[in-house]
Specification:
Low-confidence stretches: 646-672
Shape: globular
Radius of gyration: 29 Å
Helix content: 40-55%
Structural class: alpha/beta
Distance between the termini: 52 Å
Number of strands: 22
Number of helices: 27
Largest sheet: 7 strands, parallel
DNA sequence: TAGTCTGGGCTTTTT
DNA sequence: GCCCAGACTA
């Protein structure tokens, strides 16, 4: 089979580009995964690269799995490989880095058995550090300090380089120092370390870097716009001066700025590699032209970007639908009714519909509406499976068995289920362990063995029996862990710790909790071939989307963030209100506002056939009902692409504007923008000026010009007598 | 030590 | 309005 068969000319050009730095700017639905997988196969099948010399990095496990499946099919179609053949390294940045670090653990401050601390473990460490530094967690928010530390790590800043100067920075710097010590004491690395440490290793040990460069001469990266400084630097190091680096991304879909992602890495790439070849994928295979036009109108308001002209062969399709509801409950009812109506009319299956919103809190009203109508739904995210308390409790035991020095897990497991070891006993244990120079876990094990160090005598007699019992249980579990498959080990933990009666207390929630534990056991049973280390790593590096099951034929409820990378025939976007989308926390910061816009763009471009945007006349802000203003983004939807009750002020204004322009001048549809930012223009009455912004509607171009006299004016290109100067 | 009460705060969350 | 953390009480 021809590898290039079925690729469009743009895709084909990218796939067959000469090796070297390559950037593919891929619009939504333009087949970027296809390009990436075909490029990989092209390297192997046509250019003779060995599969194991290729690294392909993604951000989610799901993307990695998808790519893996397609790559395997392509390579097998090439006839070259059987199941035992070498395979490319294909995985998330974090998984790739974690593997590297285990391999090179000898060069690290932690042992090869290190555990990976997630968000909430990290918070816990910050809390602990604050406490040790006698800082009141009410005055210094642990979350804020943690975010600052995480950001520093993403920027490759260690505690020594952390800038001081403000009170907060001073506090953060001190917490950061202690935080790092605590990680090491726990024999743990956090998410950020997984990226930061390889960079540090490579910088410190040039020979090591050389060996990895030889090992992986071919690099491919998905969702490049989401890379942060650490990831970018890692790629630069691995690539060297003249890399074979093939990256695919879309700056318009960059929505993780707050996690350190910087779409400007795309521009950096152009500066760092003058030889960079750039390809644009503009043909869309997902949406109708109407949806694409609406989405472009929204995103084209961003200045300073490579404009993409998204087009499709699918035809114009139906107009977007706008609806203004009274309040969130009414909004949700509208969604349920509309879906029910579409289904009844035979237009769609329930599973074709997705309902997207800015914040998880908005799912509540929806869930209630679905429940009320007794219709099923699928909820993505919200309470992440691995974030659930009972799951974390059980995992704490497994982590402890694997790494008794993990103090965060120990403190969690110690009195869960309650066994009479309260704060006092726990504090005494920590103190005794510190003076004995052991981790608390090790002290407990020593206690259980009957050879306690002298410092153990400081433990209050009342606390001792319970601590000894816990130590004995832990010792027993550790002893049997090696012989048992994972699911049996979990059974053992459940039994000895007494989880079942603790969780399954007869209430409905209790039954849910127990069901969750059984689900974890099921996951373990499936991966019982892998050891405890691999299982824990797997579990630490999973995400929400990984738990999204496709089997149920019901509408999907999810945040706009969670929607990235997915597609649905019918998409509802809720809460198009100022303060909601854009979110009120983004109103002040232009960069944050730009990201809100991209978020809306991501939502729109998930849709294949229909988009329904909804807002509510009044919302509750912190318990109080307030009248809300329609989102500014509604104004950017070209009025002639939208139907519905046009109660939103912006849309109403635009509707009359559109009527006017269409009545007075049926302008020919521009093929591309005639004006560009920075262009000098002249107007007979306003004089000369500079184009600030230009926005393409489906039948007109709207130009914002700053005139030397007369200020800023927004003009319709088809009507205004603008003259372009040199 | 364990259960109940009160008050603050509240985006998004690929790994 | 809801949830979590820490304080308070039995």
């Amino acid at each position: 089979m021809d590898l290039l068969h079925g690729l469009n000319p743009q895709q084909r050009a990218a796939v067959t580009a000469p090796t070297g730095p390559v950037l593919v700017l891929a619009g939504p639905g333009s087949g970027k995964t296809r390009v990436l997988t075909h490029r990989l196969a092209y390297l192997v099948r046509e250019l003779g690269a060995s599969p194991e010399s290729v690294v392909a990095l993604t951000f989610t496990n799901k993307a990695a799995r998808e790519m893996g499946g397609r790559v395997q099919a392509l390579l097998r179609a090439g006839g070259s490989s059987d199941s035992s053949a070498p395979r490319p390294s294909l995985g998330t940045f974090h998984a790739f880095a974690a593997r590297l670090l285990r391999r090179e653990a000898g060069r690290l401050p932690v042992s090869r058995e290190f555990v990976i601390f997630d968000e909430s473990d990290q918070q816990e460490l910050v809390r602990q550090a604050l406490k040790e530094l006698n800082l009141d967690p009410k005055q210094v928010q642990p979350g804020a300090v943690h975010a600052a530390i995480s950001q520093a790590k993403n920027e490759l800043q260690g505690p020594e380089q952390y800038p001081r100067g403000t009170y907060f920075a001073e506090i953060t710097q001190r917490v950061y120092v202690r935080y790092e010590e605590l990680l090491q004491l726990n024999n743990a690395l956090d998410f950020d370390d997984l990226l930061l440490l390889p960079v540090r290793l490579f910088r410190q040990e040039p020979e090591l870097l050389q060996s990895y460069r030889r090992r992986y001469p071919h690099l491919l990266v998905d969702e490049f716009q989401d890379t942060n400084t650490a990831q970018y630097t890692l790629l630069r190091l691995l690539g060297g001066e003249d890399p074979d680096l093939f990256v695919v991304g879309d700056p318009d879909q960059s929505i993780y700025r707050w996690r350190g992602a910087d779409y400007r890495n795309v521009l950096r790439l152009q500066q760092d590699y003058p030889r960079l070849q750039t390809f644009l994928l503009e043909q869309n295979y997902r949406s109708t032209q109407t949806i694409l036009d609406a989405a472009m109108a929204v995103i084209d308001r961003h200045p300073d970007r490579t404009r993409k002209r998204l087009f499709t062969e699918r035809g114009r399709g139906q107009a977007l639908l706008f609806h203004e509801a009274y309040d969130p409950a009414d909004e949700a009812a509208f969604v349920v009714d509309t879906i029910a109506g579409l289904v009844a009319a035979g237009e769609v299956e329930p599973g074709d519909c997705a309902v997207m919103y800015r914040t998880n809190a908005q799912s509540r009203a929806l869930e209630e509406a679905f429940l009320k109508a007794s219709l099923p739904y699928r909820l993505v995210g919200a309470q992440r499976f691995y974030g659930r308390r009972e799951i974390r409790d059980l995992l704490a035991y497994l982590r402890l068995i694997h790494n008794p020095s993990d103090q965060v897990s120990l403190l969690r497991a110690l009195n869960t289920p309650p066994r009479g070891i309260g704060d006092k006993s726990a504090a005494a244990l920590l103190a005794a362990a510190a003076s004995a120079g052991l981790s608390p876990g090790e002290l407990l094990l020593a206690l259980a063995r009957g050879d306690p160090p002298a410092a153990a005598s400081s433990l209050p007699p009342r606390a001792r029996p319970a601590l000894e019992a816990f130590g004995a249980m832990l010792a027993g579990l550790i002893a049997t862990a090696g012989d048992l498959p994972l699911d049996r080990l979990i059974d053992q933990v459940i039994l000895e710790a007494g989880f079942r009666p603790f969780l399954d207390d007869g209430t409905e929630e209790g039954a849910d909790r127990w069901a969750n534990v059984l689900e974890l056991r099921g996951v373990a049973a499936e991966s019982s071939a892998v050891g405890l280390v691999e299982f824990l790593e797997q579990v630490a590096l999973v995400s929400d989307q990984d738990t999204l099951t496709e089997s149920v034929n019901a509408p999907t409820l999810l945040t706009l963030h969670a929607a990235k990378g997915l597609e649905f025939p019918v998409v509802f976007i809720l809460g198009l209100d100022e303060g909601e989308l854009p979110h009120h926390r983004s109103l002040e910061d232009p960069e944050a506002m730009a990201e809100e816009r991209r978020l809306f763009y991501v939502g729109l471009t998930r849709a294949e056939n229909r988009v329904i945007v909804v807002r509510a006349f009044r919302r509750r802000v912190g318990g109080v009902f307030t009248a809300s203003d329609p989102s500014r983004f509604l104004d950017d939807l070209p009025a002639d692409l939208v139907e519905g009750d046009l109660l939103g002020m912006g849309l109403r204004a635009q509707a009359s504007y559109a009527r006017q322009t269409r009545w007075e001048s049926p302008a020919p549809r521009p093929i591309g923008p005639r004006y560009a930012m920075g262009m000098r223009v002249r107007h007979p009455s306003f004089g000369e000026g500079v184009v600030m912004e230009t926005m393409l509607h489906s039948d007109d171009e709207e130009v914002t010009v700053e005139f030397e006299r007369g200020g800023v004016k927004r003009l319709s290109a088809s009507v205004a007598p603008l003259e372009i100067l040199e």
